Amino acid sequence: MSPDLPRILLASSSIYRQQLLGKLGLPFHCQSPKVDESKQPQETIEQMVARLSLNKAQAVASAHPDAIVIASDQTACTKNQALGKAGNYQTAFEQLKAQSGQCIDFYTGLVVYNPSTQNYLRAMDHTQVYFRSLSDTQIHNYLMAEKPYDCAGSFKSEGLGICLFDRIATQDPNALIGLPLIQLVNLFKQMGISLPITRPAAR
Length: 203
Fold this sequence. Notes:
By secondary structure, the chain is α/β, with parallel strands linked by helices. The protein has helices at residues 15-22, 45-61, 89-99, 136-146, 173-177, 181-190; strands spanning 8-10, 29-30, 68-78, 81-83, 103-114, 119-131, 165-169. The chain has six helices and seven strands; from the N terminus they run E-H-E-H-E-E-H-E-E-H-E-H-H. Strands 1, 2, 3, 4, 5, 6 and 7 form a seven-stranded mixed β-sheet that branches. Helix 3 (89-99) crosses helix 4 (136-146).
C-alpha cells in the first residue's frame, strides 16, 4: 500500500456498500453522513440522486478535509416515481406485484472528494431492470426466502432476486447493489491513483 495514499472514508453506513468497496482491496473507514434526503419540488430522480451523493460527500469531507471521501446515493423508480425500501412483507409484496412485467430504472450517483485538489469528482450509473411476469406464489416464495425489506425495489440482485428478472441492462452489475465500482476505479484514476494497489509483503 502506498504510504502517500490518503485515508479513505466511505460516507455510508450501508453494509452492501461496505462489502462492495471491500472488493477493491483498499483500507477504509465508514462515516455516516447526516443529510436531508427529501426530494425537492420539480426535481427528477436523477437530479435528486446526483444532489444527495454530493451532499453526502460534502458532509463528511467538511469534517475530514484530508481524506478521500466516497459517497453514493441510489433510487429505484418507475415513471419518475421513487420506489423506497419496503420495510415489511406486505409493502414488499405490493411493490413486486406492481413491478411484475415492468422495467424499473435505478439511478446510482457517485461522488469522490479529492483532498489534494479539494474537488468533487462525479459519476452517474443508470441501470434498467426488466421483471418477468410474476405470480403471487413466486413473489411470496421469494420474499419468504430472502426477506429483502431493506432494499430499494424489494429484491437483492446479487442473490435469489435474479430469478425475478427477464434481463438487466447495465454497464456495472455492482451499481445495482449500491456502488458503481467501475466508475469508482475511473475516478481514482483521475486522481492519479491506479487500482489495484499492491499491498506490501508481510515481514
